Amino acid sequence: MLDRSESSLASLLARRIPGYTLEAPFYTSPEIFAADMEAIFEQHWIYVGVEPDVPEPGDVVTVDIGRNSILIVRDDDMGVRAYHNVCRHRGARLVLEEKTTVGNLVCRYHSWTYNLEGDLIHAEHMGENFDRSCHGLKSVHIRSLEGLLFICLAEEPPEDFDGMAAVMAPYIAPHNIRETKIAYQHDLIEPGNWKLTMENNRECYHCGANHPELTVPLFAYGFGFAPEELDDLEREQAERYACLVTAEHTDWERMGIPSRCQEHLDDMVTGYRAERLPLDGAGESHTLDTRAASKKRLGSLPSDKMGALHFWTQPNSWHHFMGDHVVTFSVIPLDANHSLLRTKWLVHKDAVEGVDYDLENLIGVWMATNQQDSDLVGYCQKGATSPAYQPGPYSPHTEMLVDKFCNWYIKRMLAWHGPTRVTAKA
Questions:
Q1: Which residues pair with 186 in a beta bridge?
Q2: Residues 344 and 377 in one domain
Q3: H helices then E strands: how many in the chain?
Q4: Domain limits at 118?
Q5: Same domain membership, residue 85 and residue 221
Q6: Is residue 107, in this structure, part of any structural domain at all?
Q7: Does 6 fall in a domain?
Q8: Domain total in the chain
Q9: Cβ distance 290 to 282 under 8 Å?
Q10: pLDDT digits 0-9 by tens, 44-88
């Protein structure tokens, strides 16, 4: 609950100190969680999956976001559509499974039937004056960014998605997500508020002490460091990394693969960041031997040694694109204290498990890293409930991207819940 002395969500938003963590109620209050769902997850473009989730006509995947259940459907013309998972008769859920394949969408309550274009095509006993055309499924805005699926629940979605997509499409297109398949999906319930999961992702300050698997292929230097605090060996490694970035960006872009940093984390409604970064060792993949996990190279990539394209979107996703596979992550809030982290590993659609890739090798680094991060998020959630908690300062060297996430969040909440809007009282 919000402490009554804090007055309102608007007051908490107005007094946020840039460069510091948020006040405890932002992580613990059910009222602020409800405000987050209204202002963030019901108003912005939310990453929810990939086109290979629905590879064939009639394939359906469901995604639950707060009080909303959404159907994503591949239609007969191979288009991807999204609808509210609500029958227009008496509101029953149409699809109860996470994934299924259908000819039409049939409500199991009274058999109202909808085609894949959302039209009501069958409804018995409704009388001769009943107009089926007025009772089609309610559509949801959906966009595919080179195979990454985003939905928006607002009546009028943010218009700047097109600007982000125009910049990012050339970065993502060479990996050809539409010609991949989902080799594995893992759902992890993290014991923390969704913002703590996102904040944890936006920095690598914690990586050296907590991610022994991830830091084999990944350079933590790519996410900031304090030069004056490095010892001689660390300085040598940081300089080697900086040279690699310069050299490989030049090489990749000469091959026609955009690589340089694009960052709009807190100056756009549809905030994002992207950069192709070198990997250590063989430089091929997020594996413990740093070599490609799959023998089938993706898309039009000219080499296995393509580093890893990092792509982040506000408010709920991050992605790693490599020469042999892609890993996508989405965060869906469940309540003030729990979040769903959904991870998908994508390989070439013709890759065969046990022949072209070993599943444990493919998923090993991120399965370990996700659990380590979940534990860290849980520690922070417990700490935020303590009376001793107070906002602490972010490192200006290693947590500047966390601060940008919080800047974006505060701006978007103020736009929806500011002084001229209804505030969430205690």
A1: 343
A2: yes
A3: 9, 17
A4: 50-144
A5: no
A6: yes
A7: no
A8: 2
A9: yes
A10: 999 999 999 999 999 999 999 999 999 999 999 999 999 999 999
